[in-house]
Design a protein that fits this description.
Blueprint (H helix, E strand, L loop, with lengths): L3 H9 L2 H17 L14 E6 L5 E5 L9 H10 L3 H6 L14 E6 L9 E6 L2 E2 L2 H17 L2 H13 L1 E3 L2 H16 L12 E4 L7 H7 L28 H13 L4 E5 L6 E5 L4 E2 L1 H15 L4 E4 L5 H10 L3 E4 L4 H13 L4 E5 L5 E3 L5 E2 L1 H17 L7 H6 L8 E9 L11 H17 L5 E2 L7 E5 L2 E5 L7 E8 L2 H15 L5 E2 L1 H7 L3
Parallel strand pairs: 2-6, 7-8, 11-12, 11-13
Antiparallel strand pairs: 1-2, 1-3, 3-4, 4-5, 8-9, 9-10, 13-14, 14-15, 16-20, 16-21, 17-18, 18-19, 19-20
Helix pairs in contact: 2-5, 2-6, 7-8, 7-13, 15-16, 16-17
This protein binds 6-O-phosphono-alpha-D-glucopyranose.
6-O-phosphono-alpha-D-glucopyranose (G6P) binds next to loops.
């Protein structure tokens, strides 16, 4: 349940107050040594970092969407707009001039969701805060808020805003990315000279990548698009999982005859790429590509992925690359935590990555940084160029040669109507679990289907040369169904098996599945 405190803030969208409140709460949490872990909140517009002891104040990278902003204001705001990964990084950077390392960082963003779903992501140097700590922070927030009088609120707002110091932290963050690529190429100043690379920031926070990372490395970035932040996302949703977004960057690459295209989600923790022929490096292909790079550096390492990854990816990682594929659960925090856990019990893992485009490397403090993921690709381009291998993005395309891809791959999202009498007052989660149990039992009775021997989430089943996975969404009253198969006919057969089990549950909206299985 969202405390009244946040409801009020959402209604008002009064960010100054919101920042002050969150700053106070988070700062209290830090002082009381309530440390790590939160998921889930945002604004594509304001990023705040705070420093509780050293500088006794709030450091702000602010940018708020306003109508009719002047060119000057836009330039200024873009300069101060930060990405989510940069926020975490600011807790690790050693640079007094930029008040770093800070004790905590807060990103306010709606990520790729609409602006009315803004929220917070909290970081300390141990990573992003998780559910338990966030719940505690929000409960304390509600408590503090309830005790405020109008007078004390005004006073604390004034005191907090007086201690705000502004720094351009993105300069430090991007300089590190530039340094990484130069190093990979043997310390050449402009290792990407002559490469034409297009960035599509989808009007999120990722526009910095063109001017502050690619251009200093010598790349041409003309044709880059939607670099100007705009929380209404007028062109496409900034999300590499979104088909329209991938189409937009692909078209830009082809029209401009560029070597590579790079696309980010709003707050730059997800990314994907497109090669010079328009081939998308997203979802399983992106995982295959980054795995190939990581396995060259760390032979035999375990690659942790989310649950909706393909069977072809497993074969590729294990047979072609000589690594181990650990298909875990959906959710970037889940895969990252699992990779950290594996290392702690002696199983080496250097990469945790999702089909959503979130990817985290051990070498980068297990931070899911879309920009850093793309830096790994740039390193490859730059080092290939430095060692005299030409061919632009072909160096990357070659790395995923042999990845088997299904003819059909779909995701259908079956909604659970939470108000339906069939829930009998129970939660949608309980209802969803009952659907999954029923499906599992019906699969056991069908000789053409085999349950995956190892599975961590939902019901994953092989059959008809392909597979399906039905699971509960992490956040929504939805049962996402992924199907991959060698032909449409086989995919429909898999869909029919799910449909016959699910049809007994009246609260499930099966229209997407019905449409998929109906004879054409
Ligand atoms: O379970 P779903 O509804 O498919 O959503 C799952 C996704 O939720 C968020 O977007 C997280 O950023 C992703 O890490 C996660 O994969």
């Amino acid at each position: 349940m969202i405390p009244e405190y946040l409801h009020k803030c959402y209604r008002m969208l009064f960010l100054e107050e919101l920042q002050v409140q969150v700053w106070m709460l988070f700062s209290m949490a830090l002082k009381c040594e309530l440390i790590p872990q939160m998921d889930g909140c945002y604004i594509q517009t304001v990023a705040v970092i705070l420093s509780s002891d050293k500088n006794s104040g709030l450091t702000e990278f602010g940018m708020r969407r306003r109508k009719n902003r002047s060119v000057e204001m836009r330039r200024e705001s873009r300069k101060r707009l930060a990405s989510t990964p940069a926020m975490f990084n600011s807790t690790l950077t050693e640079d007094e001039a930029f008040l770093c390392p800070v004790d905590g960082a807060i990103m306010i963003t709606a990520s790729h969701l609409p602006y009315n779903r803004n929220g917070f992501k909290f970081f300390t140097n141990a990573g992003g805060l998780g559910k338990a700590d966030i719940k505690e922070i929000l409960e304390r927030a509600a408590d503090v808020y309830n005790k405020f009088t109008d007078e004390s609120l005004t006073k604390s707002k004034r005191l907090a805003s007086e201690s705000v110091k502004k720094v351009d932290y993105m300069t430090v963050y991007t300089a590190d990315l530039v340094k990484a690529v130069r190093k990979a190429a043997g310390n050449i100043e402009k290792p990407l000279e002559g490469f034409h690379i297009i960035v599509d920031a989808g009007n999120g926070a990722g526009g910095f990548f063109a001017a502050k990372v690619l251009e200093p490395l010598g790349a041409i970035t003309s044709g880059s698009q939607f670099l100007e932040p705009d929380g209404l996302f007028p062109y496409h949703i900034p999300n590499p999982e979104d088909k329209a977004a991938m189409k937009a960057i692909t078209q830009a690459v082809l029209q401009n005859k560029a070597d590579l295209g790079i696309i980010f989600d709003t707050d730059v923790d997800r990314s994907a790429a497109v090669d010079s022929t328009g081939r998308e490096f997203n979802r399983n292909r992106l995982i295959a590509l980054i795995s190939a790079i990581v396995l060259e550096e760390h032979p035999g390492t375990t690659i942790v992925t989310d649950s909706v990854t393909s069977d072809g990816l497993t074969t590729f990682i294990e047979k072609k690359l000589g690594g181990k594929h650990h298909r875990f659960k959906r959710g970037y925090k889940n895969v990252i935590d699992e990779a950290i856990r594996l290392n702690s019990i002696g199983e080496e893992s250097h990469l945790a990555i999702e089909t959503s485009g979130h990817g985290a490397l051990k070498e980068n403090h297990w931070l899911d940084d879309g920009a850093y993921l793309m830096v790994k690709l740039l390193n490859k381009l730059a080092s290939a160029r430095a060692s005299g291998v030409g061919g632009g993005s072909k160096v990357l395309t070659n790395l995923i040669e042999g990845l088997q891809e299904p003819a059909v791959a779909v995701e259908l999202r079956l909604k659970i109507n939470q108000n339906h009498p069939d829930l009998k007052g129970g939660s949608f989660r309980e209802y969803g679990e009952a659907v999954l149990n029923h499906l599992e039992n019906s699969v056991d009775l069908d000789p053409k289907l085999q349950k995956a021997p190892v599975n961590y989430e939902g019901v994953r089943v092989s059959g008809y040369g392909g597979w399906f996975l039905l699971r509960l969404s992490l956040h929504d009253p939805v049962l996402p169904l992924n199907i991959e198969a060698p032909s449409n006919e086989d995919a429909v057969k898999l869909g029919l098996s799910v449909a016959s089990a699910v049809k007994e549950f009246a609260a499930i909206d099966t229209s997407a599945l019905d449409k998929f299985i109906q004879p054409s």
